[in-house]
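Input record, target 12 of the design panel.
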């Protein structure tokens, strides 16, 4: 049962991430004339990314990369 709940949680996180990326791409394609959900998500995403220091982004990227590297090496 807990494994199923964790699996459902990750599925929800992946869906939300895909939705945000899709909204950002649609805003880039459609342009600034669009008003509605896509523009709101784009504005919030850009605002969040501008407030996060660049060192934090690099640190998170390195942690994820190291996890991927170690997990792939010892999973065999």
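The sequence produced for target 12 reads:
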């Amino acid at each position: 049962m807990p494994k199923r709940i964790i699996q459902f949680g990750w599925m929800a996180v992946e869906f939300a991430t895909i939705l945000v990326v899709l909204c950002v791409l649609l805003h880039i394609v459609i342009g600034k004339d669009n008003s509605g959900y896509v523009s709101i998500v784009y504005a919030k995403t850009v605002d969040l990314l501008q407030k996060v220091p660049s060192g934090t982004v690099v640190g998170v990227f390195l942690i994820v990369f190291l996890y991927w590297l170690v997990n792939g090496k010892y999973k065999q």
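The chain has a mean pLDDT of 82.
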